[in-house]
């Protein structure tokens, strides 16, 4: 699938998304407990159980082939997991970007990818997208200016507020029509990321989301397929009211670790390392 997509086609595609299997979770918990790797391992144990579920294997090996989108960080790949970094090489029109994302998810999964990393550094577009989906106004979405070193940047806040208000006017009433919403946003990268996340969920492939851009896209995909969040983990988020609300609706608990406010994929790489470590814990259980 590589052409333009409309909302009915996205809805039809979303019907193929399923909840992650439960049986491997139960088997993994039993195996980890028998090996003494129980709740005392905290989030690492929970992550190992999640990995067993999304791989449909209670003894799933660690990820071997990861593919990253929007990963521009200067950090090297995790020691235990090389990452193939792909650009957002998508068509400019949003509906073609949707098709590109779905087709690209299919292609990388067919090539053997077992984990995707996604960062979408599009501040203006993702704020409009998240605020419209949450049904909030511009002021409520942004929150009030935050003091940094006793200086409040009112000018930047006002610029962001005006841009968000204008953006919300352009997409008003389109929350229930994902393709039209992305059209009105006019951002091919956001559209491509939407197709990618939906396509990955259809193909039952786990994803680490990095930053508020990826989270806003996840919220849109979740409006199409309620089961999709089962396949996602979230890198530790920076303190931002809008992203906190998005993650609350998605009911996703961020991974532990350092907070990186730059949306260049650094958080996703660190998250991938944690997933690999948790999977190793799982694979070592008898």
Walk me through the structure.
The protein is of the alpha/beta class. It has a single domain (7-283), classed as Nicotinate-nucleotide-dimethylbenzimidazole phosphoribosyltransferase (CobT), large domain (Rossmann fold, 3-Layer(aba) Sandwich), CATH 3.40.50.10210. The chain has 12 helices and 5 strands. Strands 2-1-3-4-5 form a 5-stranded parallel sheet, sandwiched between helices. Helix 5 (123-134) packs across helix 7, helix 5 (123-134) packs parallel to helix 10 and helix 5 (123-134) packs across helix 11. The termini are far apart. The mean pLDDT is 91.
In short:
Helices cover 52% and strands 7% of the residues.
Number of helices: 12
For the secondary structure, the number of strands is: 5
Strand proportion, as a percent range, falls in 5-15%
What is the fourth-level CATH superfamily? Nicotinate-nucleotide-dimethylbenzimidazole phosphoribosyltransferase (CobT), large domain
Mean pLDDT: 91
Name of the CATH first level: Alpha Beta
Cα Rg: 19 Å
The appropriate CATH architecture is 3-Layer(aba) Sandwich
Structural class: alpha/beta
Per the principal axes of the C-alpha atoms, what is the gross shape?
globular
Uncertain runs are: none
Q: What is the H/E string? A: HHHEEHEHHHHHEHEHH
